What we know:
- Helices cover 43% and strands 0% of the residues.
- The protein is mainly alpha-helical.
- The protein has a domain at 54-104.
- It is elongated.
- It starts with 8 loop residues before the first helix and ends in a 5-residue tail after the last helix.
- The relative contact order is 0.05.
Amino acid sequence: MPKPPKLSLASIVAASTPSGKLQQTAEIVQLDTGAPALRRPSATLKQRARQMSVYLEPPVYDQLRDIAHAERAKMHGLMLEALDLLFKQRGARSIDQLNEPDGR
């Protein structure tokens, strides 16, 4: 008994069109990659940054998580905001100032 022929996507689509012919309508779309200054750095944050562990008591962690949920934000962003407030309070440079090319 011979094997049935293998179906290809093109044959399935061609069979489902009323005329039986596959209409080819392709259009080339150019994506705007933005200005060169707005492009991402080549390395990811994980590759550029240093990791630090923070141990929080359960009620502190829960409150931080609840605030992040209520504000639809990430806990990481809230921690960075807290660090910025600490830096401001102590008269140190902000995270944005430190991340400038000449910030170090």
